[in-house]
Design a protein that fits this description.
Helices cover 53% and strands 0% of the residues. The chain has 4 helices and no strands.
């Protein structure tokens, strides 16, 4: 499964705190649009670390990295690239 689809599916099935019929795209802000709350961010952090086998430092849990499907997917790719290729993609 493609990375953005995998993240989107997890968010939709496990973290949404809005109406069931709410639809979001890959650029929808998790926090700004009320998709998840602060506990949801922590659950997302745990998910990302376990499923994608990356370590996330506390200072990396920012809106630039964790506030949409696309931002999170880009962050995971960067982290995996650093870990896998020792210098990025």
């Amino acid at each position: 499964m493609e990375l953005t689809s995998q993240i989107s599916k997890y968010v939709a099935e496990n973290l949404l705190y809005v109406d069931e019929d709410f639809h979001f795209d890959n650029d929808t802000s998790f926090i700004g649009d009320g998709l998840i709350d602060s506990m949801g961010v922590m659950e997302l952090l745990t998910y990302v670390q376990s499923v994608f086998d990356i370590t996330v430092d506390q200072n990396e849990v920012t809106p630039d990295n964790f506030d949409s499907v696309n931002k999170l997917a880009a962050f995971v790719r960067r982290k995996q690239g650093v870990m896998t290729y020792s210098g990025g993609q």
